[in-house]
Specification:
alpha+beta; Factor Xa Inhibitor; 14% strand
């Protein structure tokens, strides 16, 4: 049986921390941000942890 290919979209979007947590960026940062309030813009800069129950992402990151 052939090896499973890494899903490149998932590999570029998510990353693992040293403790093993999966992290992702908040969406909606590319453009049209001038109309957002300052707090919204600031909150979009934060990275978010992916919930532990979402195991499919871990499987797709494997090569």
């Amino acid at each position: 049986m052939a090896k499973q290919k890494t899903n490149k979209r998932v590999a570029k979007t998510f990353w693992k921390t040293g403790s093993g947590k999966l992290m992702r960026r908040k969406s909606g940062q590319a453009h049209f941000n001038s109309r957002e309030s300052g707090n919204t813009t600031k909150n979009k800069r934060r990275d978010l942890a992916v919930h532990k129950t979402n195991l499919k992402i871990k499987l797709l990151m494997r090569g």
